[in-house]
Structures are given as structure tokens and as C-alpha cells.
């Protein structure tokens, strides 16, 4: 059992990290290029949201490949995750796209609520795709994992500015995306084992 669990955890961390890192690289590249090319709104927003869907599909593909048991339907899992990721990017991009200028008293509650909704998009969509008893814990675990992982996306900001070359910006964000991917994969691995890897006997053991 121990070796089976170790193999699952290693496979989950590897494949989910590859999937999310690849997807985020696509989304980040599109976001940077729309700035470099001066893409006008709403086309910039549309391109980034579509790239976000690609990120979600890549993440879900990595997760699905890592699952060892009780897999949900592939199309449902990938489609739900892709749609949720697109929604997350839309939520994240709307304030800057709309040019909202709110006073701090109104901005702080909106940021908190918006942040929670953003963090919940993917895990809630995946939970609905699972439709399984005991899968509800996937939501808080995944939200917690993403709340830690997204901090990596802020890491490049102090190192770049408007004068920074595109290659440097892209490199730093790819590295940040890889670290984010490994963080999400690592923090969700144990719960993923209980949902998609543990044998039936182990799952029902008191």
C-alpha cells in the first residue's frame, strides 16, 4: 500500500505540474503579447479568456492522466475545468479592463469576495463534475492550494518594468508558472490519492 501511494503521489505531482505549467505558459504568453502588440479591448480580454480555457484544459488533462481509479468522464472533467479557468481569468481581468476606480472602503470587500470566487471556480466545477460522495473536501483543499500557489505569479513584478525586454518577462513568468504548478500539485496530492488512487478497502477503513 505504501509503495502504491508513493507512486500515485509522485505521478500526480509530476503530471499535474506539467499540465498546469504548460497551460499557464500559454496564458501568460498571450497576456504578455497582447500588451506588446497593443491589442485593443475587448479583443485583449477575449484572447486572454480563451488562453485561460487552454490553461484549464491542460491542467485537467494532467490531472486525468494521473488518476488511477474512479475517474470521472474525461470530456466532463476537462470541459468543466477549462470553463472554470476561463471564468477565473475573466474575473481577474475585469477590474483592469473596466478601469474601475473604487475608494478603499468599497474596494477591499470587493477584492475579498472576488478573490474567493476566483479561487472557487476550478474546484467547484471539478466537484460538480465528480458527483461523488466524499468529494466535497476537494473544494477547500484545492482553494487552499491555489491561494498559496498564486503568490508565485506576483514574484516577477519587482524584477520587471515597462522597459524590460519581452524575453525576460516571459522567462520570469514561465518560471513563476512552474513553481505555481508544482505547489498546486503537491498540496492537492494527498487528497487526490483518497479520491482517485486509494483502493476501495483503504477508502472504507475506519
TrEMBL record:
Membrane-crossing residue ranges in chain numbering: 12-37, 43-62, 74-94, 106-130, 137-155, 167-196
Annotated protein name in UniProt: Uncharacterized protein
Keyword Repeat in record: no
Top-level taxonomic group: Bacteria
Source organism of this protein record: Microbacterium saccharophilum
Sorted UniProt keywords: Membrane, Transmembrane, Transmembrane helix
Alphabetized InterPro entries for the sequence: MFS_trans_sf
Entry keyword rRNA-binding: no
Amino acid at each position: 500500500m505504501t509503495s502504491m501511494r508513493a507512486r500515485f503521489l509522485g505521478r500526480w505531482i509530476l503530471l499535474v505540474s506539467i499540465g498546469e505549467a504548460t497551460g499557464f505558459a500559454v496564458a501568460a504568453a498571450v497576456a504578455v503579447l497582447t500588451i506588446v502588440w497593443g491589442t485593443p479591448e475587448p479583443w485583449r480580454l477575449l484572447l486572454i479568456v480563451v488562453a485561460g480555457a487552454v490553461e484549464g484544459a491542460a491542467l485537467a488533462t494532467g490531472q486525468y492522466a494521473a488518476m488511477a481509479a474512479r475517474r470521472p468522464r474525461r470530456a466532463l472533467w476537462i470541459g468543466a475545468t477549462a470553463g472554470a479557468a476561463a471564468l477565473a481569468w475573466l474575473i481577474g481581468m475585469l477590474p483592469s479592463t473596466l478601469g474601475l476606480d473604487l475608494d478603499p472602503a468599497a474596494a477591499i470587500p470587493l477584492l475579498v469576495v472576488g478573490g474567493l470566487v476566483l479561487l472557487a471556480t476550478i474546484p467547484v466545477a471539478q466537484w460538480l463534475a465528480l458527483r461523488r460522495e466524499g468529494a466535497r473536501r476537494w473544494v477547500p483543499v484545492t482553494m487552499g492550494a491555489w491561494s498559496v500557489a498564486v503568490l508565485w505569479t506576483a514574484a516577477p513584478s519587482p524584477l520587471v518594468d515597462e522597459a524590460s525586454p519581452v524575453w525576460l518577462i516571459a522567462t520570469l513568468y514561465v518560471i513563476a508558472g512552474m513553481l505555481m504548478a508544482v505547489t498546486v500539485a503537491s498540496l492537492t496530492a494527498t487528497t487526490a490519492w483518497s479520491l482517485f488512487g486509494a483502493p476501495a478497502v483503504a477508502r472504507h477503513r475506519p
